[in-house]
Amino acid sequence: MQWGQIKTLFILCFLVLDAFLLYHFLKEDNSVISTIPEYGEEENLRNNITGLDNIPEEPGEASMLHAQRKKLTTTDKQELQELPNQTTMVINDYFIVSQLDDPVPINVEGEMANLREHIWNDSEYQYSGKDETNQRLIFFQQIENPIFYNLSGAIIVQLNSDGEMTHYAQALLKKSEEQPEPEELISPMEPVTNLYKNNELSSGNEITNVQMGYQNLLPLPNGVQVLAPTWEITVNNNKSIYVNATEGHSLIREPKDFSNELNSQLTDYSNGSSTMNTEVISGDMDEEERQSLIDEMLSSFQEATSGQSSNGVGEE
């Protein structure tokens, strides 16, 4: 055999050997890489968002809540009349607007005994937060769970520059007799994960509270309201995201927006855009005196708000 043929044979053998060794090297390298752990979505979330232990583990079931405005009875109005230090009017037999004769100090971090003394059925409401822009305290009605941002089931307390209550508006929902069957709820961990993936939660944010309640996106002015089970997810103690607990869609609501809804409703009442049948819970007065008092109370409630804003109180 000639030397050139022998040399070619050796080269081919070495090429086959190199290919064999390369194959085993790559296979070993891939096996090492495959042992590196992959982080799942939840673990990635836990590495970037704190407070996840505040999220309930078992979502359970809940039904839609059917409710309607409570029409105030004669007994209810008598109880309103017995409240001290205020003049109260009832609009359309359900909406209460009251003006304090003398401002009342309110401490939302304490027992709020003054609130209980001056507001009818206050035990049915839960303190939600403060609208710093308009200097108002917001309380949500509870029917087993809180009802979020619904003017037909809330108390809004107007404060002056000293933090004292000067006016309040109030309405109450009552549970309808017929209620739908319970539905399975999505776990609140699922919307929290989606919020993070959609950059609505940022790395370093903290989930400070999660609670179940009810909300409808478009509160109906009359008749039965259908309120969906809703997760309220509070972030950093200063922002709340509301997630439909059966469908998963979400929105952010702020106290000042809800407060502005009240402003719009009061404006509609005062300028006649909305039908308004009023009853002043006070002593005897003729029609002219009654109308004068109504106009004064509606305008003073609104002026209290505009005065706070123009003075820069609570501006962010």
From TrEMBL:
It comes from the Bacteria. GO terms for cellular component: membrane. The chain crosses the membrane at residues 9-26. Pfam families: YycI (PF09648). Keywords: Membrane, Transmembrane, Transmembrane helix. Residues 46-246 form the Regulatory protein YycH-like domain. This is Regulatory protein YycH-like domain-containing protein. It comes from Gracilibacillus halophilus YIM-C55.5. The lineage of its organism: Bacteria, Bacillati, Bacillota, Bacilli, Bacillales.
